[in-house]
């Protein structure tokens, strides 16, 4: 019987330990963390960063940190602000999309709340990069759809991956989390939202929304919500939802994942 793609992904996410990764992969994950922290510290100081703070913070005192700002807030606000500020200056990693934007901020905020160890944090970040980038490669824009920019659309699965690992979800819950995330992913943006003549200051790639969707999906699945586990399979799968002409996401998605580390790109 053919396995759902989410089953294969869930096996990978739940089964990986830091001992499974080469030293250079672990070192690159550490570099990605430092790079993202630097981008968040710089991004929050910009005009757009200050607007984020003014818009989303109030007198509520939470437990989650905003990188580069002393006030704490609730988990969802912190994840949104950090995942947006990391990309404001467009200096963050960009192998395909900006994979770290929907992985590292959410990882740091969850780790802070749950007192996650460094090894657990790094492991979660690596598996999320490997899953997220592979999904992105399969869903990257085709020539006839060059007017769309859908990084946040598929990067919802980066935040889902890292949340699933850090929340220690079981395999079935991970599958549900991916189904929930796919059903709630932001739609692809059109190019004018990033490169328009008026230079909009909005969060161009929807990374804040994508990160919140992944976090929410993990939390809902952990507590019993279900989603379409076959979100990547068949004629009515995620590829159709986001306007692709064919499905390139199949159960071969992770076939080279033990020897070809996308995080090293």
UniProtKB/TrEMBL annotation:
Which Pfam families does this entry report, sorted A to Z? Answer: MmgE_PrpD_N
Q: Which residues form the MmgE/PrpD N-terminal domain?
A: 8-245
Q: Name one GO molecular function term.
A: lyase activity
Which Gene3D superfamilies does the record match to this protein?
2-methylcitrate dehydratase PrpD (1.10.4100.10)
Q: Which family would the database say this protein is a member of?
A: Belongs to the PrpD family.
Q: What is this protein called?
A: MmgE/PrpD N-terminal domain-containing protein
Species the sequence originates in: marine sediment metagenome
